[in-house]
From TrEMBL, chains A, B:
Keywords: Oxidoreductase
Similarity comment text for this entry: Belongs to the isocitrate and isopropylmalate dehydrogenases family.
Family matches, as Pfam families: Iso_dh
Family annotation (PANTHER family): DECARBOXYLATING DEHYDROGENASES-ISOCITRATE, ISOPROPYLMALATE, TARTRATE (PTHR11835), ISOCITRATE DEHYDROGENASE [NAD] SUBUNIT ALPHA, MITOCHONDRIAL (PTHR11835:SF34)
Ranges for domain Isopropylmalate dehydrogenase-like: 9-346
Alphabetical GO biological process terms: isocitrate metabolic process; tricarboxylic acid cycle
Official protein name in the record: Isocitrate dehydrogenase (NAD+)
SMART domains: Iso_dh (SM01329)
Amino acid sequence: DYSKLDKIIIGVCGGDGIGPVITHEAERVLRYLLADEVKAGKIEFREIDGLTIENRVACMKAIPDDVLAELKECHVILKGPTTTPRAGDPWPNIESANVAMRKELDLFANVRPVKVPSEGIDWTFFRENTEGAYTLGSCGTNVDDELAFDFTVTTTEGTERIARLAYDYAKKNGKKRVSIVTKANIVKTTDGKFLKLCQNIAKEYPDITTDDWYIDIMTAKLIDPKRRKDFQVMVLPNLYGDIITDEAAEMQGGVGTAGSANLGKRYAMFEAIHGSAPRMMDEGRGCFADPCSMLRAAVMLLSHIDHQTEANKLERALDICMYEEKKLAITGRDTGATCEEFGNYVMSTIETL
Amino acid sequence: DYSKLDKIIIGVCGGDGIGPVITHEAERVLRYLLADEVKAGKIEFREIDGLTIENRVACMKAIPDDVLAELKECHVILKGPTTTPRAGDPWPNIESANVAMRKELDLFANVRPVKVPSEGIDWTFFRENTEGAYTLGSCGTNVDDELAFDFTVTTTEGTERIARLAYDYAKKNGKKRVSIVTKANIVKTTDGKFLKLCQNIAKEYPDITTDDWYIDIMTAKLIDPKRRKDFQVMVLPNLYGDIITDEAAEMQGGVGTAGSANLGKRYAMFEAIHGSAPRMMDEGRGCFADPCSMLRAAVMLLSHIDHQTEANKLERALDICMYEEKKLAITGRDTGATCEEFGNYVMSTIETL
Ligand SMILES: CC(C)[C@H](C(=O)O)[C@@H](O)C(=O)O
Ligand SMILES: CC(C)[C@H](C(=O)O)[C@@H](O)C(=O)O
């Protein structure tokens, strides 16, 4: 309960590539919305600059120790995209910083809303955030030159807590339906367990209809104009949540438009669902980066710290600005307006609400 | 080389639910196209009726022994959808018949074309068909009440043969680009191996551009109107291929419109990518089932047995009939025309070509 805290500390982690540009913009809008409380010392923004690929490579850790210590002193974190080293990159193979942060801060739930009001689409994905293919993602084995294994994990506690969060959300927000998405016909033990445990939790919510889908057909139904409006709340193992939320975000205008909340018992982290777009920086187009995803993440942050009025304002303003952006092409990478100009536009729109 | 055979034996396996209805229709159209060769004894259609859920449950095998023996006497197989038992079903837990057939006949490649000519979309997916999450799908472990594991497998041979097939296809068909799709940033050992081996094979095809994508962002790019035309040939591990081809099929009009080829060194099996729709049968609407997926599978079968002229004819006729169906709503589940009427319509269209 954040209203009981003397002071809420918001850590701001810019990350890599376009991360600092768009995170700075989201922070600027948040500071504008929370100006009185910042002045009164009830909210503090704390810059955490060390989570860069250079620092991570220097210590060969997904999160340097001092950065982790700083993160743990915050209540909530606004985080820009970080670069994950991949085959062919100049960096050695260190783990993804977001995946590491989810594990280190036990952020077990990844909540990703996607809305297309004109189409009647209003989805909220509850992606399990620390298990599945991610728990032991670096622990696979090359048995010999021929044969390689990887592992997938499902735990009872991990599944029950994400299921409960999804159903509680559905109940609180008057949603009528929760869809469980797995591949339990093939990945029988872990996905089978996930499905069964979710179905058990479902029994505690008799007013909510539960259905279940396989991830393959779900990626089709999600874009089926006749069906897509019917989905409301979805709960999924980590990897399927990862996959389907990128597809879902595309329906809304692309991964650049989608924010996500990483929630745990003690900490919460809010981020864009897309990557750090290093090429934009290389080409000198960083200032044109689209801050919408981080601003959507900021909406979720505000709502999480019980600032629902501010969250609603920012959301309305974003809906308007993103609609205008599409309609008038006043900004965005294609048209030449900058990230900062978009931020200004959002703030001036808030003024008019 | 099928032209060297005295006789080509085409096994026809109706399967469950709407399977026999739509498979029968595809067989009828095939017999019509191949009438002379059937009469001359150069092609034989062999009905294999035993692959039903009832028989499979009776012997508790995904494929009854006698059915498997019959299958192995054929050169190619046309297979209707089969029912895979799932939690809550009246059937005990036996493995999926298609997955079992892929393993038993070593059908290592699942080739799934998706076309939307009006949008410039012409994709061919090369899904690895026997490994990944599927190899040990029933071998997961419940360590205790809390913890469950499943396994993913990549082998060198399995990866190299699917990669080579994809690149050979690209080369033969004048495709400029092959995209490798994995989640190698997380599923590091197996997907990392898959990615690396595909990249090695790529070096043997210097005229073809290779790129690689993570499956999450790929599900977004696939529906991005600015990007989707650019993709041509995709090669993926089993589970990602399973997931993304349902999404892709939806772009073309739904899983009911998509056929797939399961190819091995010795055998080849052609099927719909969708399920057996038992509910349609229960509701007495089986005769209205849409045979398009099986007719698309029949196109691939014809092409596979070196009957390219017939394959082209059937494909043209299908393109026309499916287009008309959409435009005039002359058939399909919603309008009251039957599966058989659609088959007749396809054959009368072939007459006009
Ligand atoms: C960058 C990557 C490791 C990450 C993930 O797979 O979770 C990303 O795709 C996401 O969805 O946040
Ligand atoms: C029915 C199911 C086991 C199967 C699969 O997962 O391969 C199906 O989805 C497919 O794509 O053929």
